[in-house]
């Protein structure tokens, strides 16, 4: 989304850094130095991360062109670390307009303090799962949240299958039938898989046929991917899961071959009956 915005603003297929800067957040970020840089006493110079370079570019563009030269920065997977820890200086600068101090120790290429440029636009992507941190109200109050979890898989699925090289029309239809069927059932249960998984399944099935010379059937390739990409993340509890698992077992029971995905769902159904909960890993 951020890339599309940058392309639209600048009217170009490719927008280079620093005008479009993607910063990959790491789980070990605990302070602002990962964004604003720090002085390295060993090399005796100031380490300048991509984020700081984008800020400096925005400040320079503002002085030269005014606010018509925006700089877009995206913090990818921003809640892998505590956002309040590494972004606190920037959040304060955005709201108060106060400068952020840089301990440059005489580095002539850098200012000793830097205000948040009004032409610098900050975006962030987040996931909500067991590997991520909760976003505090302090951050949410300063943001506009766009929920992209409600997706439609069918149009993208049809496009990826149309681009496949080895699959014929019937095989594309078969792949679409099973993938979209599984997605619809899991979506109604509140646990749909995303675009990345669906695209990976299509690629696997296409390459499986191309590389196996037909030894691996389409159904067996789909079956393997449902095990490896979809069912491994399936878990839940309560009676409301009974119908989704039953419908899923009926869908997967229609696959020819080993039917390992069908057997996995039947096992999870048994766990739900006995324990009231289930998961792929037992």
Give a structural overview.
By secondary structure, the chain is mainly α. It folds into two domains: 2-140, no CATH class; 153-279, no CATH class. It has helices at residues 2-10, 33-36, 50-65, 83-86, 88-96, 137-140, 153-162, 169-188, 195-212, 218-230, 242-253, 260-275; strands spanning 20-24, 38-40, 45-47, 71-76, 100-101, 113-114, 120-124, 235-237, 277-279. The strands form four sheets. It has a three-stranded parallel sheet with strand order 1-4-7, with helices on both faces. It has a two-stranded antiparallel sheet with strand order 2-3. The mean pLDDT is 92.
Short note summarizing the structure:
The protein has 282 residues and is mainly alpha-helical.
Major beta-sheet overview: 3 strands, parallel
**Gyration radius, in Å:** 25 Å
DSSP strand tally: 9
Going by helix content, strand content and strand pairing, the class is: mainly alpha
Number of domains: 2
Average pLDDT level: 92
Ranges where pLDDT stays below 50 over 5 or more residues in a row are none
End-to-end Cα distance, whole Å, is 38 Å
Order of helices and strands: HEHEEHEHHEEEHHHHHEHHE
The strand line-up of the biggest sheet is 1-4-7
Principal-axes shape call: elongated
Helical region count? 12
In terms of DSSP E residues, the strand content is 5-15%
Query: How much helicity do the residues have?
Result: 40-55%
């Amino acid at each position: 989304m951020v890339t599309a915005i940058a392309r639209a603003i600048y009217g170009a297929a490719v927008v280079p850094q620093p005008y479009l800067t993607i910063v990959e957040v790491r789980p070990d970020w605990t302070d602002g130095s990962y964004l604003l840089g720090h002085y390295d006493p060993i090399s005796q110079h100031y380490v300048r991360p991509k984020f700081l370079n984008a800020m400096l570019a925005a400040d320079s563009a503002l002085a030269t062109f005014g606010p018509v030269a925006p700089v877009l920065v995206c913090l990818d997977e921003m809640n892998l670390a505590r956002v309040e820890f590494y972004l606190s200086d920037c959040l304060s600068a955005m709201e108060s307009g106060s400068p952020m101090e840089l301990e440059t120790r005489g580095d002539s290429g850098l200012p000793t303090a830097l205000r948040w440029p009004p032409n610098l636009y900050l975006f962030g992507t987040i996931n909500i799962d067991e590997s991520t941190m909760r976003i505090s109200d302090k951050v949410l109050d300063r943001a506009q949240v766009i929920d992209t979890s409600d997706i439609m898989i069918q149009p993208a699925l049809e496009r990826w299958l149309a681009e496949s090289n080895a699959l014929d029309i019937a095989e594309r239809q078969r792949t679409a039938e099973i993938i979209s069927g599984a997605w619809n059932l899991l979506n109604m249960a509140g646990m749909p898989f995303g675009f990345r998984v669906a695209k990976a399944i299509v690629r696997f099935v296409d390459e499986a046929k191309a590389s196996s010379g037909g030894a691996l059937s389409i159904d067996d390739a789909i079956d393997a991917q449902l095990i490896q990409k979809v069912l491994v993340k399936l878990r839940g509890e309560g009676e409301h899961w009974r119908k989704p698992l039953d419908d899923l077992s009926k869908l997967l029971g229609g696959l020819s071959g080993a039917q390992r995905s069908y057997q996995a769902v039947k096992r999870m159904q048994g766990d739900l009956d006995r324990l009231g909960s289930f998961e792929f890993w037992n």
